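Listing S7. Sequence submitted for prediction.
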Amino acid sequence: MANKVQKVKHELFETTVLPYMDSAYNLARWLTRNEHDAEDVVQEAFLRALRSFNTFIVGRDARAWLLAIVRNCCRTWYRQHRSNEMSIESHVDSQAELGMWSDPEAVLIKNANSEMIREAMEQLPMDYREVLILRELEELSYKEIAQIIEIPLGTVMSRLSRARKELYGRLARPAGEAVL
């Protein structure tokens, strides 16, 4: 009987959670900034998800649930490997610098180069990267992001705004200009 229950649990896990493996890897890749580290984090996240799957409420958003686990695994990984990089620090020198770029989307389109964008994203503090990834790449709602990151909805919106300004500021700088 126990084997049958385990089999049903694994089948339910496979149909409910495994479809979001790409999303999990995408988030881990952006947060760790390394393919191999992301693979390790995703593997750990799936093990944690499987172990705690009995706490998952059927009908709940499995993608948001899994991404919360991935995020927590990334945080643990960061504390162990790169604890000095976790804090939010703005590198935009002034509001005037941001004001120069009244239409950041136009600047982004004009300078669109996937490598440049990737590098700029990877330079952002982890807290900024994660909200940008969850919103822009994974297309999650603010409410889902708030649940995953476990912060108030207003904080998600303000952090996302600051992250976008930081990213636009980095992309708007001439190549080779140092960030102070």
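Caption to Listing S7: primary sequence and predicted structure tokens for the chain studied. The domain at 95-172 is CATH 1.10.10.10 (Arc Repressor Mutant, subunit A). DSSP finds ten helices and no strands in the chain.
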